[in-house]
Amino acid sequence: MDVAEGVLDTEERAIVDTVAGFVDHEVRPVARELEHANTYPEQLIEQMKQLGVFGLAIPEPYGDVAVSTPCYALVTEELARGWMSLAGAMGGHTVVAKLLLAYGTDEQKQRYLPRMATGELRATMALTEPGGGSDLQALRTTARRDGEDYVVDGTKTWISNARRAGLIALLCKTDPRAEPAHSGISVLLVETPRAGFTVSKDLPKLGYKGVESCELVFEGARVPGDAVLGGVEGEGFAQMMRGLEIGRIQVAARATGVARAAFDDALRYARDRESFGKPIWKHQAVGNLLSDMGTKITAARSLLLHAARAYDSGSRSDMEAGMAKLFCSETAMEVALNAIRVHGGYGYSTEFDVERYFRDAPLMIVGEGTNEIQSNVIVRQLVQRGGLD
Questions:
Q1: Is pTM, for the whole model, over 0.90?
Q2: Active-site residue among 78, 233, 245, 368?
Q3: Is 60 designated active site?
Q4: Which CATH number covers residue 170?
Q5: In sequence order, what DSSP letters do the residues of 260-279 get, joined into one string?
Q6: Collapsing DSSP states into helix, strand and coil, what is residue 253?
Q7: Range of the domain at 213
């Protein structure tokens, strides 16, 4: 079944098909080698730029084409099916683009979006702090006004693409004494490199290889006064919460892509591998695993597309995005483990890709707000909305 049938128009289906072809012919043949060597995929990133992947969320007059969120989700799923790290390379970039489109001043949009659309300028967001985790209102990074500038001090951690991003959407406190705390939080658009800013170290990871995740240190870094997103202080927390909706949809799409790759490999192996005189899928224990995997992936993709459509409606969609992120990521973890079960001993071998899926899947459970945070978001919205629609 063509998942894009009835969801995307002809042009968007062609975009997804083009990315799928890129994944099959360019990504999958080299992903295992690059991942095991923890090598940055420079050539693949350049090909993604040429395909227009970094501009999919940026409309005219800043970019060539802006696709619907369902299309964006399916493109992300295809990239993650090939190698999850490639989807991660454009995740934060898209969140920053959406923030600029929704809240940026005209000057900020003109300054950044055209170059972001081509991939010439790569962007990332910096939220998490050491010891802070998902409690964003308790962040300690400050931006103190000094004449025409802000002076920024603080540390951020687990920032993807930090060494290659020329623009950082930095969540910080411009009024540390504000009550409630969120009313003193702003987003600063910080261009790099600059004095007082360093990428202090790359963080070692279980999976998500190739693309760096770093610790950032701001020590008296001076940032122009017009760097506040939208030009108004104190709006950053609400702005970023909206940005995280598309971020969580993107993570859900990544998880669905990893689950698809694990299922596809398991199904192929189960058809080719024989034991006791028959293909192993005919053994009920293996067949039941494949049946359950296929069912949950189908449900995950439906929930992903539901969240994507809710986002495009323009209404608040944190519950829908949270549900998709929660279910898709848990499904990816379960499917990756079951793919190892289907492969038996070969599933534990680095000569097969299923061990990579098993190492990549946990990132989606803890990234962009842990699944425990998603549960909190979901139940609050269920109570506020009076249940399900």
A1: yes
A2: 368
A3: no
A4: 2.40.110.10
A5: HHHHHHHHHHHHH-EETTEE
A6: helix
A7: 123-234
